[in-house]
Amino acid sequence: MEEEIKKPNKEIAAKDLTTCEATAQMLDKARRDGVEIAPHRAANMKPCPIGADSACCKHCFMGPCRLNSKDPYGKVGICGATIDTIMARNFGRMVAAGTAAHTDHGMGMLDLFREVVKGNIRDYKIKDTEKLQSVAKSIGIEVEGRTIEEIAMDLYKELERTYTQVDGEIPFTKRVPEKTLETWRKHGIVPRGAMREIMEMMHRTAMGVDQHYENITKQASRTALADGWGGSMVSTEISDILFGTPSPVAVEVNMGVLKENEVNIIIHGHEPNLFESMLASVNDPMFVQAAKDAGAAGINLVGMCCSGLEMMSRHGIPHAGNFSSTEAILVTGAVDAMAVDIQCIQQGLSKVADCYDTPFITTNPRCKIEGALHVEFNEHDPKSCTDEIVIKAISRFKNRTMPIEIPKIVNTGVHGFSHEYINYMLGGSFRASYTPLNDNIINGRIRGVAGVVGCTNPRVKQDYVHVELVRELIRNDVLVIQTGCSQIALAKAGLTAPEAAVLAGPGLREVCETVGMPPVLGMGACVDNSRILIAAAAMVREGGLGESIADLPVAGAAPEFMSEKAIAIGHYFVASGVFTVFGVTFPIVKETKFHKLLFEGLEQQGLGKWGFTPDPHEMAKMMIAHIDKKRKALGIDKARDRILVDMATRRELDAA
Ligand code: NFS
Ligand code: SF4
Prior knowledge:
There is one protein chain. By secondary structure, the chain is an alpha/beta fold. Helix 5 (83-117) packs across helix 22 (564-576) and helix 9 runs antiparallel to helix 10 (213-243). It starts with 13 loop residues before the first helix and ends with a helix. The model is unreliable at 1-9 (pLDDT under 50). It binds FE(4)-NI(1)-S(5) cluster and iron/sulfur cluster.
């Protein structure tokens, strides 16, 4: 029977679960050690087919109601809700959850900023005053002849509206290209304030409220935009102001960044403040000495997932791997402490850490995990938490009993391409601008720009879809910009190094070699997808590529997504005008009105649209076709064929 639960398949080879060699090595070791991690669990857990299609509703207890995705209009819920209503409500709630995650994080950054400006917190300070002024100016705050404190306080007050405002438009809508904003206004989807939009989304999707899929989708767009141009953007900008705007830096990535003879501390999560304080703690001479006294050569601080990406972009801190490697890395036995804050922290980590005697420490009151040690991080006294983590790590090092096996793989690449830096890199310091980028797109050297972002997911072979997709895109002269776990996948594949320019098509290669940049530009964490929005707005403003974001020859993808946050991000890109393709699975039944709305209708309204395919080559084809369609509409199309990466070239690329 199909429904029968499959027996654990012990034979599944690690190389079929991941293309990350280090993770594969640790998967094999975990198997030998009798330790179970996510890819093993995924092999033993069949996804619920009705949930996967979003054809079930549990919004009230007349149900839960399950509809048949094979015959979507054959049945309705007990209340009469149709498949379109049910799917739109589920989708809207995913957007609300993802938006809540990014905006709660962003609001936390803003709280920190306020306390720093008021002088109540002294462990952090405003590091990038230039960025402070430019962000303030971008939303109409007077900066001439005013003190940093005055500007900062005004900026705080203004940005607080992103969250709390009940009516009007959020501040960063001032950065949206005029025509895009006009389209939003026409459809009534300009966000008022994130709290209000999330609240209304939850209300409207409750039993017996909004039961028109088109109307629900409008609120989903409004909510998602409160993330992209709201919570996420505030988070990026405030983090830059407090901790510095990234500029390119060569960084080591992969599990080989762990050092057998040093105290290894991993920070995994999403908030840069914990990590910044960790950096201060590990550099404290007292702890450096304590580590030496314990027999270590030093303290080795490394990152994972998104806060790791922020730290690598700002400070060149090594990065040990993406989401699907977080449990696997503990299997090395070399991790002396793993501290986490919020988001994408798998509960399974606690058990794996236990198996390898690694202290696993939660730090945020929002995220406690059974079995983990909780050492609360308080911004008013940050070092008391981070010092304690260091002490725990040194003590574990001293008493190491576990055999250690560190995969000896390290990849070096260049990361930290903020929007500001791209401006400078292409335009030069005296004429910083997007003119060269736009020119190279118009003359066809660069065919278009693709944002490839998002998670890894144990339902698909780790990193494989990201890497195959990006290889084919750059081969076809599409410049790739990246964030999140995707960026780490490409870093491990060597594509974030300038030398990877040889893998690009002739036009993109020429541009990369002239500027000295890699064909794949890493922009940071998932909240830094807002940098991509700002870059897109700058391209429109620069001129020659249409009047709205929807006119640009650009496309986006999250090839291995797993998180609700990814759905929120996908939808704010779509609502901003970008064709966005997701892989793995798509939580919506085909051949329904709601599906048609997301995949076609929104584009007809002047927004972007969704796409789906689990296959990287098909994904590249869809994105390139879209880019070509936009080039044609702009009248800058030259006849050019899509180059398929065939087996022979692929072998060549692998050798390169
Ligand atoms: Ni983004 Fe970062 Fe990674 Fe996905 Fe999770 S770490 S916020 S959600 S899994 S990219
Ligand atoms: Fe079923 Fe309607 Fe209740 Fe949903 S809201 S569970 S479709 S009765």
